[in-house]
């Protein structure tokens, strides 16, 4: 595998992951907004309606470890 990425906007990091000796490339776009992270992945090949997937997550406060 090989990967390369960079900031493509103030709030967006784009990462491409290529599988060695194959035609497969996945592009990930990570968009940061406050405590929210949006992730979109896009495959370069496959069925057109299955090439793009999207997820949204939010930061959560860490719970303190129990005292021993």
What does this structure look like?
- By secondary structure, the chain is mostly beta strands.
- It has one domain (2-58).
- The chain is 0% helix and 57% strand.
- The chain is built from no helices and five strands.
- It has strands at 2-9, 12-18, 25-33, 36-43, 52-58.
- The chain has a five-stranded antiparallel β-sheet with strand order 1-2-3-4-5, with no helix packed on it.
- Strand 2 (12-18) and strand 3 form a beta hairpin.
- The protein is elongated and about 50 Å long.
Per DSSP, the total helix count is 0
Give a count of the beta strands, DSSP E runs of length 2 or more: 5
| Count of separate structural domains | 1
Q: Helix- and strand-based class?
A: mainly beta
Within the largest sheet, what's the order of strands?
Answer: 1-2-3-4-5
- Mind summarizing the main beta sheet? 5 strands, antiparallel
**What is the overall silhouette?**
elongated
Percent range for β-strand residues: over 45%
List the helices and strands and how they pair.
Layout: E1 2-9, E2 12-18, E3 25-33, E4 36-43, E5 52-58
Antiparallel strand pairs: 1-2, 2-3, 3-4, 4-5
Task: Spell out the key features of this protein.
0% helix, 68 residues, mainly beta, single chain, 57% strand, 5-stranded antiparallel sheet
Describe this structure in a few short sentences.
This protein has strands at residues 2-9, 12-18, 25-33, 36-43, 52-58. The chain is an all-beta fold.
